[in-house]
Specification:
Layout: E1 9-12, H1 20-29, H2 31-34, E2 39-43, H3 45-54, E3 61-63, H4 70-73, E4 78-82, H5 95-114, E5 120-122, H6 127-131, H7 140-147, E6 156-160, E7 165-168, H8 178-181, H9 184-200, E8 208-212, H10 227-241, E9 245-250, H11 258-261, E10 266-269, H12 272-283, E11 288-292, E12 298-301, H13 318-336
Parallel strand pairs: 1-2, 1-5, 2-4, 3-4, 5-12, 7-10, 8-9, 8-10
Antiparallel strand pairs: 6-7, 6-11, 11-12
Length: 337
């Protein structure tokens, strides 16, 4: 099978007051050591140059007019699709910075959706600050899904690292609301999307899903809550009936030690912290947020803007580097499928 034509990855700049710009510069500086694919950043050439200098990196910037131009200059300079100048004050978010982040996200998503970029990597944003400049979505995942014509409920978040992959069934909701929001159909649907993505984007021919229980000890046969019996177990049965290798509901406290992790390819977890605590314990510096169920590949480092770290030089670039690598691997698998 012949190799697909090379296309660069496109990245949004994120909130310019956060750690995103400097980590994009750090990723470019590590391009040879980490064997990263060519990428370009949509944002501000002057701001990225300042971010690199603030971090003590020699990052020459090359302003480009179209993504394909990144292929010719990535080895010598960081290619940037310039949206204009913006203030760079690490740790001090502004509405102007949020407006740049939003324009960058919109433009980068359009580029990825048009097919001229291999994948989309989004640097972290501050959702509350973005809302002040007209951003009406809960987060970048929902924005990208809508731009791709995908219903938000069909865009599934997976957090993935070298040691673990997890899918939270409910995400940014209060813990008190989780039992009400969990349904058999929601678990079945997200499990189905996760299984398909493990095949398509991760190259796992026969994916295995481990489904966590909601209650301690997976409810102990109904003694500690009925959700595991009445909601989760039927979802596992439905997944198995569809030919998916799914097990559960399993006591969550026994799912994440090394022997248990060897028995599955991804864990479906019932709420945010049930998924993200083990992922961040095991893969804090290399965790990637990948959105499943989209017609494009979209990844993001699994951390926020970290305003307190911005400009200090202490923010680590591992997750940003991992996001580019995972985006490249997934898009290559899709292109060769």
């Amino acid at each position: 099978m012949s190799l697909p034509p090379l296309r660069p990855i496109v990245a949004s700049i994120g909130d310019p007051a956060g750690i995103g710009p400097e980590l994009l510069c750090a990723a470019w500086a590590a391009r040879h050591v980490e064997r990263l694919p060519p990428f370009c950043v949509v944002g501000s050439s002057a701001l990225l140059e300042a971010a690199g200098q603030r971090r003590g990196l020699a990052v020459p910037i090359r302003t480009i007019g179209a993504p394909h131009e990144a292929l010719g200059c990535f080895g010598e300079a960081l290619p940037v699709i310039d949206l204009g100048a913006a203030d760079y004050t690490p740790g001090s978010p502004t509405d102007g910075g949020a407006a740049l982040a939003l324009r960058s996200l919109e433009t980068a998503t359009f580029i990825a959706r048009s097919g001229v970029a291999a994948a989309l990597v989004t640097a972290p944003i501050a959702k509350a600050r973005l809302a002040r400049v007209g951003f009406s979505h809960p987060g970048q995942t929902e924005f990208v899904a809508e731009a791709c014509g995908v219903l938000a409920r069909n865009a599934v978040m997976m957090l993935a690292g070298p040691s673990l992959r997890v899918v939270p069934i409910t995400v940014h909701v209060a813990l008190a609301d989780v039992p009400r929001l969990l349904t058999t159909e929601l678990i079945r649907a997200r499990g189905t999307i996760a299984a398909a993505a493990l095949v398509r984007d991760f190259g796992i021919a026969h994916p295995r899903l481990a489904v966590a229980g909601l209650n301690p000890h997976a409810g102990e046969d109904g003694r500690i809550g009925r959700e595991d019996i009445e909601v989760i177990a039927p979802a596992v049965e439905a997944l198995r009936a569809a030919g998916i290798d799914a097990t559960g509901p399993l006591p969550a406290d026994g799912m994440f030690h090394p022997e248990a992790r060897a028995r599955y390819d991804a864990a479906l977890c019932m709420y945010h912290d049930q998924a993200l605590i083990p992922l961040k314990v095991l893969d804090f510096d290399s965790g990637v947020n990948i959105t499943l169920g989209l017609p494009i590949v979209r990844t993001s480092p699994d951390h926020g803007t970290a305003f307190a770290l911005a400009g200090t030089g202490h923010a680590r670039a591992g997750a940003t580097i991992a996001a580019f690598r995972m985006a490249a691997e997934a898009s290559a698998r899709r292109a060769l499928a």
